[in-house]
Design brief:
Layout (H helix, E strand, L loop, with lengths): L1 E3 L2 H9 L5 E6 L5 H11 L4 E6 L9 H6 L4 H10 L4 E3 L3 H4 L19 H4 L3 H16 L3 E5 L3 H12 L6 E5 L19 H8 L2 H13 L5 H13 L4 E10 L20 E9 L2 E9 L1
Parallel strand pairs: 1-4, 2-3, 2-5, 3-4, 5-6
Antiparallel strand pairs: 7-8, 8-9
Length: 286
């Protein structure tokens, strides 16, 4: 695996690598979930490109950007072991050159709720950096984790507005032994915070899935089951527990049932804050 840091080095490396090319955009602090993205991408692409860039435009403050973990040496080892061919690790000026205006990308109608409401401007930053990476790497495919459920749907919408016909692949969420979804942010949790997160977030979603499998379809009833678990843990602050049509993220009313979703699939999204760290997770029903 080769690591490059500039656009010219990227162009040179890509010219020597076979197509099709799959891109896996990341912000680094890689873990087994990322490795699964890389190995999955190898099944459909001759070349797997991993980008590592902590994108300042999707954070709420400079302090949040500075706090995000950066572990490039370890990231290189994980990416290479998982079969990546090229790692692109640019700095901010390489992505957003001071003398080259970079267009801000509209994240579309799926970006207004949930994370879009809780983190104003976040999805504009996400859509802008992903579009920018598409312009630089020219991939045929791109891979994203299903845990970031709203994000992948926003990216799918944004990609559909482009002319280069990039295929977006969703890869199932990878969970740790305690069922907490793998996330780079998990390493920012204290030991107690980690325990609290693991015994609430995945448990709440599992209760919803199990209740639905047993025949419970009422949104209000499913919400009550999950919220009871989370509210019982004072160190976990629930931002939202949302039931929406999986295709268009239109929310389901409290008196609705899972079967009322027009697409036939419901996305259950959860966001909570533990130790000041924002964690998200999601499942789909059925």
């Amino acid at each position: 695996m080769r690591t490059v840091t500039t656009r010219s080095e990227l162009d040179d490396a890509l010219a020597k690598l076979p197509r099709p090319v799959a891109l896996v955009p990341t912000m680094g602090a890689l873990h087994a979930g990322h490795a699964t993205l890389f190995t999955t991408a190898r099944r459909t692409a001759a070349t797997v490109v991993v980008s590592i860039f902590v994108n300042p435009r999707q954070f709420g403050s400079a302090a949040d950007v500075a706090q995000y973990p950066r572990t490039l040496a370890a990231d290189q080892q994980i990416a290479e072991a998982a079969g990546a061919h090229l790692l692109f690790a640019p700095d901010v000026d390489e992505i957003y050159p001071p003398d080259e205006p970079i267009a801000t990308i509209n994240p579309g109608p799926l970006a207004t709720r949930l994370e879009g409401a809780s983190r104003p401007g976040h999805f504009t930053g996400v859509a802008t950096i992903v579009s920018r990476l598409f312009d630089l790497v020219h991939p045929d495919q791109a891979y994203f984790g299903a845990k970031d459920a709203q994000q992948v749907r926003v990216i799918e919408w944004m990609t559909a507005q482009r002319s280069d016909r990039i295929t977006i692949h969703r890869v199932a969420t990878v969970r740790d032994r305690d069922d907490l979804a793998l996330s780079s942010r998990n390493q920012m949790l204290s030991a107690n915070g980690r325990v609290a997160a693991a015994k609430t977030i995945p448990v709440a979603l599992s209760l919803i899935a199990e209740a639905y499998a047993s025949g419970v379809t009422s949104v209000a009833t499913l919400r009550t089951l999950a919220e009871r678990v989370i509210l019982a843990e004072p160190s976990v602050a629930l931002d939202y527990l949302d039931f929406a049509d999986s295709a268009n993220l239109v929310p389901l009313a409290e008196d609705a049932h899972v079967g009322d979703a027009a697409s036939g699939e419901v996305l259950v999204s959860l966001a909570a804050v533990v130790d000041g760290v924002r964690l998200i997770d999601a499942i789909t029903l059925p």
